[in-house]
Specification:
This protein is mostly helical. Helix 3 crosses helix 4. The radius of gyration is 32 Å and the shape is rod-shaped. The mean pLDDT is 87.
């Protein structure tokens, strides 16, 4: 009983009970509880990877744009290949690769 008395005294302490209540409130009932924090962290990581992807993509697009605007022949080639543009009177044949089964 000697060992149990100090433990009970701590468990009945106002500050200890307040701290436990605060921790329970913040982990379970608060609008920014642990589950929400995990979801926000996961979303942040996802957005960060998307940002890196788009930054790399922007870099390649800028390089392609600078290259295309430097030469009219490259611009015509790009328009024909990418957007299937043609001159009047021309026929365009598009070869689509067969899907692997």
């Amino acid at each position: 009983m000697n060992f149990l008395t100090p433990v009970l005294r701590v468990l009945r302490n106002f500050y200890f009970l307040t701290a436990v209540g605060f921790v329970v409130w913040m982990t379970v009932f608060d609008s920014n509880d642990l589950g929400k924090q995990y979801e926000m962290y996961h979303k942040w990581r996802e957005l960060k990877s998307e940002k890196e992807y788009y930054e790399a993509n922007i870099k390649t697009v800028k390089e392609d744009r600078a290259e295309l605007l430097s030469s009219p022949a490259l611009l015509e080639k790009f328009a024909r290949e990418k957007y299937l543009m043609k001159r009047p009177g021309e026929d365009v044949f598009v070869l689509v690769p067969k899907e692997a089964e």
